[in-house]
Fold this protein.
Amino acid sequence: MSETDLPQLDFSTMQPYPIWERARTECPVIHSHGSDLDPRDGYTVTRFGDAEHTLRDWETFSSSINADHIGKFMGDLILAMNGPEHRQYRNLVAHAFRASALERWDADLVVPLIHGLIDDIAPKGQADLVADVTSKYPVQVICRIVGVPLEDTPQFHQWAEEINLGVLDEPKGMAASRNMRAYLEPIVEDRRKNPQDDLITDLVTAEIDGEKLTDEKIYGFLRLLLPAGAETTFRTMGNALTALLTRPDELARVTADRSLIPEVIEETLRWESSVTTTSRIATTDAEIAGVAIPGGCPVTVVIGSANHDAGRYDDGEEWKLGRKTQTHLAFGTGPHQCLGMHLARLELRTGLNVILDRLPNLRLDPSRPAPVIEGFAFRGPTTLPVLFDV
Ligand code: HEM
């Protein structure tokens, strides 16, 4: 079956899950024909097992395709590398993102940043948790870790959004990419002369086979880390808050029993993966679920769909605690599995706990429309109007 036999994604609702559910049953690997824009045929993988297999088999399904789209805006990036080169570059920063390295950041950086944001809203009794908290908090954390001054985070957030959405608006994406580099250049030069305890210093002092990293590699890393760290966790936190606020009984249960927070986070990541798709290219003729994939064809792995697969999860479309299977593909799997997943989980855990501690009787504002999680490539609510006691 080909894409023409399936209903098209509905851009008026921004809700792809019903289509993906149908694809998993009727056409788990969707074949779409090339177009004037891209003459290659494409294949879209929607079931959990096929998605997992595709992401793990990096030799057959290469990440190098990321250099063609997101790489245009980010530059030389690990997301587009493979094999030993990928391992070498990933290892340069991996130590900073290990679970054991994060404890220091929690106390020194994550906890003070979330409290600072809540200080601004706590006396008011009402807020928009997206505008006031979630859209600011992860970008502040990643900017501080990288070594960008806190006051410049709103600018970084805007560039991160524009780089991420560059495929939809190329001039804007390219301008954001240039502006981010121009902004970072004096900081990079400063760290070359005055090393500090931050990631820019790690990158400018790092050597591979006795050679320092080229500027292209340094800015490629930074242009990936800032959007990857900012745009994803921000939406996941909005999705977790939406799940709880629209289920007041569950919100009360979790507020009273914080040991449920890790499960809230994993179930939210599964239910509404903030990154819904990843891209690969077949390096050779291959097959997925009986469908022949010619070498050179792009393969889209729909993480969001895999995470709802009825073959693995009962009532996969529902958000519910107490599931038998809680593992998911929200952070991908295989060699490119999210480098920031421990940081993301830490930010979500600390952020949700502080919100529940400091905003008593938290509830949706009944005078405003109910929140909606929307989007295709990235999903989250655009607004979360709430009331709480002061
Ligand atoms: C809830 C939040 C997050 C989600 C859902 C998420 C999702 C993902 C996914 C699905 C991938 C794999 C892409 C692929 O296989 O092609 C990935 C890779 C990556 N993520 Fe995240 N991410 C999150 C948070 C973060 C954070 C906080 C950072 C901060 C540094 C980060 C940095 C990265 C990097 C550098 C990669 C590329 C790894 C590589 O190519 O080896 N992510 N992320």
Summary: The first helix runs from residue 17 to 26.
